[in-house]
UniProtKB/TrEMBL annotation, chain A:
Protein name: NAD(P)/FAD-dependent oxidoreductase
Residues spanning the signal sequence: 1-23
PROSITE patterns reported in the protein's UniProt record: TAT
Domain FAD/NAD(P)-binding: 31-144
Domain Flavocytochrome c sulphide dehydrogenase flavin-binding: 353-419
UniProt cross-references to InterPro entries, sorted A to Z: FAD/NAD-bd_sf (IPR036188), FAD/NAD-binding_dom (IPR023753), FAD/NAD-linked_Rdtase_dimer_sf (IPR016156), FCSD_central (IPR049386), FlavoCytC_S_DH_flav-bd (IPR015323), FlavoCytC_S_DH_flav-bd_sf (IPR037092), SQRD (IPR052541), TAT_signal (IPR006311)
Source superkingdom: Bacteria
Keyword vocabulary terms for this entry: FAD, Flavoprotein, Signal
UniProtKB/TrEMBL annotation, chain B:
Gene3D superfamilies, per database record: Cytochrome c-like domain
Keyword Kinase: no
Protein name (database record): Cytochrome c domain-containing protein
Organism: Paralimibaculum aggregatum
Signal peptide: 1-22
PROSITE patterns: CYTC (PS51007)
Length: 420, 242
């Protein structure tokens, strides 16, 4: 199989019209397996199937049949979106010829180039793309753990956890306390915890205006901090208390049974505890030996290839992407770079220089949107930021409203780009 | 015949209006290179949609009194296109410089503008018209282009750049960066469509971002990193997308 593939690459690279690579259609098409159907994996699968024009067989392994995007799930908590509006299925990807397998990848044999599935099947690959997102370091918050995730939900993977958190917020007693234990760096979606607080505040200001929000933060500063703090003061005066690490933010433990958060030896009784643990690459990356001591996966910036194995590319939140934040936008951007590199390697198509960009929109209150973004370039060492921008404090309401409307357009655009 | 009479009547009205306001803003005139008297004649290109002078009201287009220094899309009571509102919110302000760019090809500055006007190709004509319009703005010392820090107007997109033949295959790859926000289907759900544009308009628009005539920060970032060939490639690719 591999010999055939190499012979194929040789002949395709030799031909001028390598893009079409018609010889590859039929007998021995190179096979790409993509693990993970989120912003990175689904985009990579879609671009490989579309641009490969049938020359590459693509299998996408994703356990869920309905995928809820983590981006915009805060807007669901705030009452701006329904859960259905952030749900996506894989039918259009299947219709374009991608073999969509709803199963868990539980092992990767990099010597035999085989992926083992929980359901018992296995998939051979010529190239593997691993885009598993994040998993949690369950021991990072003393007292918390996977058994406590219903009492103190993370809601950092969208879906049932997000629904649960929304229900808990709705059931808060009048004047109750919503507490967030924010994650340490690095984590998925840097402005996400603070957008979430904004959305919870928006919801509570309508249904439970005397309620309080406390953020226990292990970080001394956070993404878009000036913008969020300005917005909180303007829209939710007196409701939100952000505790930085040296002033109560660094917690000793949580007590899910008693609904207490202990900080500086003092137990605080809360009504809802949104505990977002520290994070690492999705488990399958760890199992396959693609992660380093940091828990995330080192990559070659120009191609998103794993530094552990050139036949494997890693995307999105699971990677050490240098200056690029962990975001759906970043994963989508990285996926296109990886898809191009994979296609070039397997069919001899042109490999253009990689391009990386990211923009993150956050909603603070009704019609009050802000954004931050940057461009990046691949250096030998890392994906390095070249230029960026951020919304300014004191912007007029019209610009903020348009930034929010732009974010709606972006959501429609990127989800069409990911899921077809 | 009727058309000529209409034109003459309009000219006479416009000149009368200009006379009425001229002394209000007398010291404005010599700051600008254009000839306002000649510009008054060119006003005919605008007056089917715009009103100017005492008592001017919004018509098909907004009235153009106090235009200089005005933030785009801020005349009360006028229903602007979404793109013009966006440009105004992003910071577009009407000055001699921005009016030059806008009047040359309105869609190159504000893609979805309601102003269905092909533009004024000759720079001297635009200068004359702008000098005429300026008479209807008060406080000339405060208008932005009079400030010593006013940025110089960027050059038009050179014919040599417009002549670059784009490679649609490269454009298709580069387009991956665009379609994260702009839908490949051409649907606009909050972010404008960029499919099916004439290549000249596409190239002009992207150079307007690249050269920071257009204020949107994301687009400035994206366009700023595109070479002339890459812009041509994108124009060629998106031209062919339905």
């Amino acid at each position: 199989m591999r010999v055939t593939r190499r012979r194929l690459i040789g002949s395709a690279a030799a031909g001028a019209a390598a893009l079409a690579a018609p010889a590859a259609i039929g007998a021995a098409r190179p096979h790409v397996v993509v693990i993970g159907g989120g912003a990175g994996g689904a985009t990579a699968a879609r671009y490989l199937a579309r641009d490969g024009k049938g020359a590459i067989a693509v299998t996408l392994v994703e356990p869920t049949r309905t995928y809820h995007t983590c981006f915009f799930s805060n807007l669901y908590l705030g009452g701006f979106r329904t859960l259905e509006s952030i749900a996506h299925s894989y039918g259009r990807l299947a219709a374009m010829g991608i073999n969509v397998v709803h199963d868990w990848a539980v092992g990767i044999d990099r010597d035999t180039r085989t992926v083992a599935l929980a359901g018992g099947g296995s998939l051979g690959y010529d190239r593997l793309i691993v885009a598993p997102g994040i998993d949690f370091r369950w021991d990072s918050v003393p007292g918390h753990g996977i058994a406590a995730q219903n009492a103190m939900p993370h809601a950092w993977k969208a879906g049932s956890q997000t629904e649960l958190l929304k229900a808990q917020i709705a059931s808060m007693p009048e004047g109750g306390v919503f507490a967030m234990v924010a994650p340490p760096n690095p984590y998925r979606c840097p402005p996400g915890p603070y957008e979430r607080v904004s959305m919870v505040a928006h919801q509570l200001s309508r249904t439970n205006p005397t309620a309080k929000i406390m953020i226990f933060d292990p970080k001394p500063k956070f993404s878009k901090q000036a913008l969020f703090e300005e917005g909180w003061a303007a829209h939710y005066p007196g409701m939100i208390e952000w505790l930085e690490p040296d002033f109560g933010g660094r917690i000793d433990e949580v007590r899910p049974d008693a609904m207490e958060i202990v900080s500086d030896g003092e137990a605080v009784k809360v009504d809802v505890a949104n505990v977002i643990p520290a994070q690492k690459a999705g488990r399958i990356a760890e199992i396959a030996g693609l992660a380093d001591a940091s828990g995330f996966c080192p990559i070659v910036p120009a191609t998103m290839q794993s530094r552990m194995d050139p036949a494997v590319h890693v995307l999105g939140d699971a990677t050490i992407a240098g200056d690029m934040p962990k975001s759906g936008f970043s994963a989508n951007s990285q996926a296109k770079v990886a898809a191009m590199a994979v296609r070039a390697a397997l069919t001899g198509s042109t490999a253009f220089p990689p391009r990386f960009s990211n923009t993150c929109w956050s909603l603070i209150a009704t019609g009050d949107g802000v954004k931050v973004g940057a461009r990046y370039e691949a250096t030998e060492e890392k994906i390095a930021k070249t230029e960026g921008f951020i919304s300014q404090t004191g912007e007029d309401a019209e610009l903020r409203r348009q930034t929010y409307e732009e974010s709606l357009g972006w959501y429609a655009g990127i989800t069409a780009d990911i899921f077809g | 015949m009727g058309a000529l009479r209409l034109l003459l009547t309009a000219l006479a009205l416009a000149l009368a209006a200009a006379g009425a306001r001229a002394e209000l803003a007398a010291d404005a005139v010599h700051d600008l290179p254009g000839d306002p008297e000649r510009g008054a004649g060119l006003w005919r290109l605008c007056q089917s949609c715009h009103a100017l002078g005492e008592g001017a009201r919004n018509r098909v287009g907004p009235h153009l009194n106090e235009l200089f220094g005005r933030r785009a899309a801020t005349v009360a009571g006028y229903r602007y296109s979404k793109d013009m509102r966006r440009a105004g919110a992003d910071g577009l302000t009407w000055t001699a410089d921005t009016l030059h760019v806008y009047l040359e090809n309105p869609r190159s500055l504000v893609t979805g503008t309601r102003m269905a006007f092909r533009g004024i190709p000759e720079e001297a004509d635009r200068a004359d018209l702008i000098a005429y319009l300026r008479r209807f703005s008060a406080s000339p010392r405060d208008i932005p282009e009079a400030a010593p820090t006013a940025p110089p107007r960027d050059p038009d997109v050179a014919p040599a750049i417009l002549a670059i033949e784009g490679d649609p295959a490269y454009g298709e790859y580069l387009a991956g960066e665009c379609v994260t926000c702009h839908q490949a289907s051409g649907t606009d759900e909050g972010i404008p469509s960029i499919t099916g544009w004439p290549e000249r308009d596409f190239v002009t628009a992207l150079h307007a971002y690249k050269n920071r005539h257009r204020p949107h920060p994301v687009m400035q970032l994206i366009a700023g990193n595109l070479s002339e060939e890459e812009i041509a490639a994108l124009a060629a690719f998106f031209r062919g997308v339905d």
